[in-house]
Specification:
The protein is an alpha/beta fold. The chain has a single domain, classed as Rossmann fold. It is built from 8 helices and 8 strands.
């Protein structure tokens, strides 16, 4: 039986200020998708509300926007997947071996309080499946609690987009909160690379996290290794 991966993407297309667009950082999906595809994994896309997924415009001009993202945009069948994602209530957690939360600043708004995503994540994690995130994807783990009431991230070594990276990206005045600080408040042992914007991923048991867009391929490779 092929392993099955649930890729989580955002439905939010702008910051609090609607004149500033955001959305899915496409390469964080496409780099991982390619790794999972090469391992023969079956993949599904889910979003907090289901339906269409907006793309972060900045990601389409970024150095990480290379062949996998370009190929995805050039493929009508792949783009159609982003027009019609599943909603959490359509997902049976027992069907999946791993969940992978993609990033882009849109996720800061709709990932944290999705009870459906929290349910799926908790069920996968508690039966030993892999829970993973890249960049801002960790916002989807902030409020997820285990059956005993504790935060999933409490006491876990992990990473995600750093506050210094928000400042360097010049969006620190736009984001709704400091994700790095929120992780620490929930008891996570937050780590980051010495330099910003370089690939960095952390494995703690069945939790796999990557710091930024450049970390998507490394994160997915570590997820695949954890499933092996």
């Amino acid at each position: 039986m092929a392993k099955r991966i649930l890729n989580v993407v955002t439905n939010v297309g702008h910051y609090d200020d609607p004149s500033h667009p955001t959305g899915l950082w496409l390469s964080e999906l496409t780099h991982a998708w390619q790794v999972f595809e090469e391992h023969g994994f079956e993949q599904t896309l889910v979003s907090p509300a289901g339906g269409a997924v907006p793309l972060e415009p900045r990601a389409l001009k970024f150095p990480s926007y290379e062949k996998t993202a370009k190929a995805w945009r050039a493929d009508p069948a792949r783009m159609a997947l982003l027009e019609d994602t599943a909603s959490p209530d359509q997902i049976v957690a027992a069907d999946y071996d791993a969940i992978y939360f993609t990033g882009g600043h849109g996720v800061m708004y709709d990932f944290p309080d999705s009870e459906g995503l929290q349910r799926i994540t908790r069920e996968i994690f508690e039966r030993g499946g892999v829970v993973s995130s890249v960049c801002h994807g960790y916002c989807g783990l902030l409020n997820t609690r285990l059956s005993d009431g504790s935060h999933l991230v409490a006491g876990r070594t992990m990473t995600g987009f750093a506050w210094t990276e928000e400042v360097l990206a010049r969006v620190d005045k736009l984001v709704p909160y400091n994700g790095e600080e929120e992780l620490k408040k929930r008891g996570a042992d937050y780590r980051k690379a010495t330099l910003p914007f370089v690939s960095y991923a952390v494995v703690d048991g069945n939790l796999v996290t990557g710091q930024n867009p450049a970390s998507a391929k490394e994160t997915a490779t570590k997820v695949a290794a954890a499933l092996a």
